[in-house]
Hints:
- This is cysteine-S-conjugate beta-lyase.
- It comes from Petrotoga mexicana DSM 14811.
- Helix 3 runs antiparallel to helix 12.
- The protein is 41% helix and 14% strand.
- It has helices at 17-20, 22-26, 45-57, 71-81, 96-107, 123-129, 151-158, 181-193, 222-225, 235-238, 253-266, 273-285, 287-311, 336-347, 373-387, and strands spanning 32-33, 90-93, 113-116, 134-137, 141-143, 146-148, 163-169, 197-201, 228-232, 246-249, 325-329, 349-350, 352-353, 364-368.
- The longest helix has 25 residues, at 287-311.
- It is of the alpha/beta class.
- A seven-stranded mixed beta sheet has the order 2-10-9-8-7-3-4, with helices on both faces. Strands 11-14-13 form a three-stranded antiparallel beta sheet, with no helix packed on it. Strands 1-12 form a two-stranded parallel sheet.
Amino acid sequence: xxxxxxxxxxxxxxxxxxxxxxxxxxxxxxxxxxxxxxxxxxxxxxxxxxxxxxxxxxxxxxxxxxxxxxxxxxxxxxxxxxxxxxxxxxxxxxxxxxxxxxxxxxxxxxxxxxxxxxxxxxxxxxxxxxxxxxxxxxxxxxxxxxxxxxxxxxxxxxxxxxxxxxxxxxxxxxxxxxxxxxxxxxxxxxxxxxxxxxxxxxxxxxxxxxxxxxxxxxxxxxxxxxxxxxxxxxxxxxxxxxxxxxxxxxxxxxxxxxxxxxxxxxxxxxxxxxxxxxxxxxxxxxxxxxxxxxxxxxxxxxxxxxxxxxxxxxxxxxxxxxxxxxxxxxxxxxxxxxxxxxxxxxxxxxxxxxxxxxxxxxxxxxxxxxxxxxxxxxxxxxxxxxxxxx
Length: 390
């Protein structure tokens, strides 16, 4: 492996929410943080060098996108995911969550319904409620330790008079599913049938483990290309969350115009200078780094899966098909608050409780395995020692 993902980098002096927010979140500062979804790995060296070079220039005036800014992203989607993106389809934003807010404002009115598949990434709830829209849950089915879509329930929810939008999470956070083509095709047929605009959060699309394959939503059919928006960012792929640069792919010209109109009425589509530099270089020269990262993450996943299956089989888990997040079922140990107390105060490990992703996640905990294997081993052993006699 060319890149050293075993290196432990001290993040505490860097205003890290993951590490510096531990005391506020868990009530103590000696907890191993494995919660918020950023990794503890340095970003690709080429990105770091490009940022240094830009910083050394010393002038940080108003930036503008050059004529070639979108090319690396377009080439990345074509070579990595086998799909064509045209430059005119792309709108820039500073982050996927904010970009989803814009879409909610652009295509719905207060009181309208937005469908989400729970348990799901918890900011979805906030951006729907805070904008006066109604959350409609299409809960995922959990059978034989596997998640699948409930299409019968989904059609009922999409057919409601005031349902205007559906938010898809693919790969799914927190359960780790990478939706298969047949699942997506069935989903898209229902959205088109009921004239519901699909918002596809594909921020984890590069973090998929073979033989699973990510399929961009706009590539599946012409109908869905005309009634969907797809949200991308280099933040999860290359550990660049703090630099704020993302891409929204909107093939339909009318939808794109409506989207831009909301941006212009509220804010600006200008990006941070360093975010622009990092995104361009990451997509240009980050392939080898990502390939090594995926191999390392797969090793971490295998370790956690084997460790708990062997030592604490009451914790049920599946290997994620995508993301660097694992979804652990602690329900055999009692109610969620009791388990959280043991994790924090006995194991001294900070996981995210499943209930924040929706009632359907209660009793599960999300573990971020995007860290050095040595940290992962320490955390796993701590959990084992805290739960082995229960």
